[in-house]
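re: the backbone from monday

yeah here it is again, tokenized this time
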């Protein structure tokens, strides 16, 4: 029995045919027209016709589209605003590789090389983007600087076309021979180049720019990244010991171990990443190398004199001020290191006295952590431990975190609930930070959550509401990749790509971090309608352990600000609160809202007394009689349905009973044979109220 062909093998002939078609179309084709022509010659098999929801295209087309991306990296295909065109390099490979498999290997190998050398490509793109208009840089010099094969770099530039791609030329100042450009491409390239100031009679040697000059331009540009005072944490990691801390304090410096031979005074992060890739290739994994490069960039480029620097060892935090520039110190007994002079304060702080946000960063796996968002708090801590000669102990520290305002009688009267109940809500939020109101529909859960949050935040802009539903996912709530069309000026403009975007939760967190003195509230309406474990993901951890960091699925290390609060609402008629898992129960306080219990009990009477004191009908009595007939406690009707001005106009009560209350009860009794209108209809409930009153008048308490 033969093995069925895979999606990949079936799309290889389509890939080659697509480039053949484009090679015959001088002006290119729109991607949709190209696919139509390709699939007409190579129809999809049944298993290729399944629609991929994320891309709104079939599996077959999706696989083919990804393969064409490899052709872009190989310099054979250019995508611009939906129009795809083949380069003469594609025609060269079509002639050289007539078998679909061999042709496919060209793109596959280009992608594999790009994937392995992404750091070098990023550096090369940054360098060629710095070439001044009308000037050019030699391909060989650029490839050597970025640690790349010149032929692969030339093809990648010709296909992806980042900023300045056309200003990378051969050593003779002409289009690089590696891309096999034809006369049309050479002419178009010359027109583009001359449009930026070059002339036909210019000597190529006069317009060539050296890579060293580009590196200086990048370093000057990057020097502006660190404007303003910043704050940093040097994480000890495993190379630390008590003797190193004492040496730091005694000699007045901080350092990072750095297995580097030399480091210029100014260096771009891309160049630094290439150096780290080469130096640590055998000893560190790719992700570790990327982290090292980021740590070195922060220490060497982004730290500046007058920045605050901290280090935590054995449950204590020391604070200092950087007083000088970074240098490569080769005198260390345990190897080379990056070093900066620091003026340390001699009195440490106990970790448990620190703000939660700062405590969370102390467990970071990064070597250098940017604490600039906490600069104000670190300054306050530094002032507290900056004792004078006659002082023996630190000054008193301010209370960590934000303080929620206490509820007032005015708020209780506005919301028609007891002040004591509001005080319990306040205390639960101050202690737990996460709270869920649960109960039957119409008990005012969302209304109370919004108004209480706005009062406690003091600013409506600090309150955000989202509503969960069964299709809600982690990518909707926290962070995920979303399809975007590349804009003009980007490489492969017009092509569909993916962009990492924050969801409402991370958006609120970012806002809270920029306003640390203001409580920020996220209201999650109908929280139990989504798959909570799927939506919250690793957020479960930081909701309970705010003093520890956690790695987010897409963007790495994350800490939860202390001024972020979460209030959820849960409709017990939609799904019983008993179905909430133990992990959720442990992280949220649960507060019931039920028509038979305070604060909801009596809410309708109070609202009518305030807004419709002359109401001709005893609506609260009707509401109580209705709920007396509903046996399931979780399905009793809340008073909110009857707290609308329209209910107290002519025909309003009948209308809300018929269009809102009865449909809800019909859904509850669906399939059990109950005559909902006969049992719960307004006239039936009115008769029940009248019978009850006659019984009371006759001395029958029933």
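seq for it, each position gets an aa:
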């Amino acid at each position: 029995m033969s093995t069925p062909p895979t999606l990949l093998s079936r799309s290889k002939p389509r890939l080659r045919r697509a480039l053949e078609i484009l090679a015959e179309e001088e002006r290119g084709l729109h991607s949709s027209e190209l696919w139509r022509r390709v699939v007409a010659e190579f129809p999809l098999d049944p298993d290729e016709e399944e629609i991929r929801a994320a891309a709104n295209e079939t599996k077959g087309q999706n696989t083919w589209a990804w393969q064409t991306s490899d052709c872009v990296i190989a310099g054979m295909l250019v995508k611009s605003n939906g129009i795809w065109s083949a380069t003469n390099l594609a025609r060269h490979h079509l002639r050289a590789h007539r078998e679909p498999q061999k042709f496919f290997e060209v793109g596959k190998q280009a992608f594999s090389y790009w994937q392995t050398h992404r750091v070098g490509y990023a550096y090369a793109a940054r360098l060629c983007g710095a070439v001044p208009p009308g000037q050019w840089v030699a391909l060989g010099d650029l490839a050597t600087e970025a640690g790349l094969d010149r032929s692969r770099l030339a093809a990648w530039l010709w296909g992806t076309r980042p900023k300045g791609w056309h200003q990378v030329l051969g050593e003779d100042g002409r289009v690089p021979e590696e891309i096999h450009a034809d006369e049309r491409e050479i002419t178009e390239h010359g027109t583009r180049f001359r449009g930026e100031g070059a002339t036909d009679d210019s000597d190529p040697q006069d317009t060539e720019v050296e890579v060293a000059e580009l590196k200086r331009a990048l370093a000057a540009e990057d020097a502006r990244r660190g404007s303003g005072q910043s704050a940093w944490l040097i994480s000890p990691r495993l190379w630390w010991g008590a003797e190193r801390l004492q040496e730091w304090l005694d000699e007045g410096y901080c350092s990072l171990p750095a297995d580097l031979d030399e480091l210029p005074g100014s260096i771009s992060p891309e160049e630094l990443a290439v150096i780290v890739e080469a130096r640590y290739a055998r000893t560190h994994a790719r992700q570790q190398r990327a982290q090292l490069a980021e740590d070195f960039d922060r220490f060497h480029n982004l730290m500046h004199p007058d920045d605050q620097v901290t280090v935590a060892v054995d449950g204590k935090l020391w604070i200092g001020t950087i007083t000088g520039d970074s240098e490569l110190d080769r005198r260390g007994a345990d190897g080379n290191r990056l070093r900066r002079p620091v003026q340390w304060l001699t009195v440490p702080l106990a970790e448990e006295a620190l703000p939660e946000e700062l405590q969370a960063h102390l467990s970071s796996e990064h070597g250098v952590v940017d604490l600039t968002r906490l600069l104000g708090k670190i300054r306050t801590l530094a002032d507290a431990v900056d004792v004078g000669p006659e002082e023996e102990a630190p000054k008193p520290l301010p209370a960590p975190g934000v303080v929620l305002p206490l509820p007032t009688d005015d708020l209780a009267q506005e919301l028609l609930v007891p002040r004591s109940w509001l005080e319990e809500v306040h205390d639960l939020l101050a202690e737990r930070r996460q709270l869920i109101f649960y109960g039957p529909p119409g008990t005012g859960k969302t209304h109370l959550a919004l108004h209480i949050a706005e009062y406690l935040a003091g600013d409506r802009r600090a309150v955000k509401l989202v509503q969960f539903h069964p299709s809600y996912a982690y990518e909707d709530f926290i962070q995920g990749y979303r399809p975007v069309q590349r804009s003009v000026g980007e490489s492969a403009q017009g092509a569909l790509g993916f962009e990492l975007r924050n969801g409402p939760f991370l958006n609120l967190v970012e806002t809270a971090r920029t306003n640390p003195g203001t409580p920020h509230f996220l209201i999650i309406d109908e929280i139990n309608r989504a798959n909570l474990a799927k939506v919250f993901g690793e957020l479960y951890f930081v909701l309970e352990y705010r003093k520890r960091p956690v790695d987010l699925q897409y963007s790495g290390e994350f800490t939860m600000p202390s001024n972020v609060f979460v209030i959820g609402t849960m409709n017990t008629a939609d799904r019983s609160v008993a179905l909430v898992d133990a992990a959720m129960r442990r992280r949220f306080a649960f507060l019931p809202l039920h028509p038979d219990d305070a604060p909801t009990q009596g809410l309708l009477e109070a609202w009518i007394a305030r807004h419709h004191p002359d109401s001709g009908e005893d609506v609260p009595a009707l509401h109580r009689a209705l709920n007396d007939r509903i046996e399931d406690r979780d399905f009793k009707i809340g008073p909110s349905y009857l707290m609308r001005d329209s209910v107290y106009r002519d025909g309003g009560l009948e209308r809300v009973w018929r269009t809102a209350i009865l449909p809800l009860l019909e859904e509850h009794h669906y399939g059990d044979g109950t005559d909902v209108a006969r049992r719960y209809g307004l006239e039936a409930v009115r008769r029940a109220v009248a019978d009850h009153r006659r019984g009371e008048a006759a001395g029958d308490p029933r």
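The longest strand covers residues 337-344. Residues 7-24 form the longest helix (18 residues).
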